Amino acid sequence: MSVDTQVQRSWFEDVMVPCYNPMEMIPVRGQGSVVWDQQGKEYIDFAGGIAVSCLGHCHPVMVEALMEQANKIWHLSNVMTNEPALRLAKKLTEISFAEKVFFANSGAEANEAALKLARRWAKETHGEEKSEIIAFTQGFHGRTFFTVTVGGQPAYSDGFGPKPGGITHIPYNDLEALKAHLSDKTCAVMMEPLQGEGGVVSPDPEFVQAVRDLCDQHHALLIFDEVQTGNGRTGHFYAYQELGVTPDILSTAKSLGGGFPIGAMLTTTELAQHMKPGVHGSTYGGNPLACAVAEAVVNHISQPSVLQGVAEREQWLKQGLSGLNDKYGLFADIRGKGLLIGAELNDEWKGRARDILVAAGQHGLLLLVAGANVVRFTPSLVITQKEIAQGLEKLDQAIASLV
Ligand SMILES: *Cc1c(COP(=O)(O)O)cnc(C)c1O
């Protein structure tokens, strides 16, 4: 018996805080978009660690960057700066609107920094009154108390006592509601430029433009949460670049480190000056090991060939899904952008997204859901055509087992 098989899934119930409900198998190894569990069973990975493993598992450029930095220096604290952080920040400012970068360790922390910066800016430039944050129902921004409260799913923020105040939620794509609520008291609008967790919902282009215009009119900041959409996921390095609307603050994480924890808040020089020394910080934020891996990931993804390859993979996957829909008639809609794809179940299959995820797991395919009715696909941006075909075949078998 190998060491791997001695670790039992049942330990989870024994020793882990039960805030997750993990699948029965335990993956131990991954290569590209293939993962193997303790028993050596093979899985095709259409989940990509929830839109994180953008180069698949153990991509050589990530492994090389990690090993090289591991032999140099791991951690310094922000009492000093470090080379990988400076190089990564420079690269991020070159490929986006941003002039300044703040590093964190996760999406929630990047958003926490974005919200704190917006509030600080508003107070210093307009006064106490300008504190309202407008966000969207079904939006998701992380699990810290501030970010989960700005997120639009009360089920995630209820039950923890008094919430941070001054937050208003309106429906996504609802222009009238936006006009009715945005005012001179609005400090910032926070939105995902394509709602991920909330069901893979795209914004109407006119809506995004109207958000920008109204923010300008009322001197409010626009914060794009690109934690899920960023780093090539939609086929552009950031989703805003295709929408033609530039935010004032952008948060990024998930695919930024390709599996190594890192997040970042990007903004302008003018806004950044409101975060003077001591105003905000993080022990690990900008850690050299994380930044070295992220630098390699960003350099690789930002190549035109990789970004252009996303659209091609989107086609293969969407065509395969509509083929399965012709065969089984289970999807009401197949939507999303790039490799952030949602397949919404029709009335007959309503509420069965998790059943499909579980059946897929049994047939050797890793999937995600986005709510009870949407099956979500966020594979590696460099998944091969063969891996996509293999995954679709397993999905076919999984669906067949449910009909
Ligand atoms: C995943 C996600 C977050 C939270 O990121 P963590 O790294 O889990 O804190 C925030 N916003 C969006 C849009 C996300 O998809």
UniProtKB/TrEMBL annotation:
Binding site for N(2)-acetyl-L-ornithine: 143, 282
SUPFAM superfamilies, A to Z: PLP-dependent transferases (SSF53383)
Cofactor(s) demanded: pyridoxal 5'-phosphate
Cellular localization per UniProt: Cytoplasm
Catalytic activity: N(2)-acetyl-L-ornithine + 2-oxoglutarate = N-acetyl-L-glutamate 5-semialdehyde + L-glutamate
Residues annotated with N6-(pyridoxal phosphate)lysine modification: 254
Cofactor binding notes: Binds 1 pyridoxal phosphate per subunit.
Record GO terms (molecular function): transaminase activity
Binding residue positions for pyridoxal 5'-phosphate: 107-108, 140, 225-228, 283
Pathway: Amino-acid biosynthesis; L-arginine biosynthesis; N(2)-acetyl-L-ornithine from L-glutamate: step 4/4
Primary subcellular site in the record, as a coarse category: cytoplasm
Anything else known: May also have succinyldiaminopimelate aminotransferase activity, thus carrying out the corresponding step in lysine biosynthesis.
Family membership noted in the UniProt record: Belongs to the class-III pyridoxal-phosphate-dependent aminotransferase family. ArgD subfamily.
Subunit structure: Homodimer.
Protein name as catalogued: Acetylornithine aminotransferase
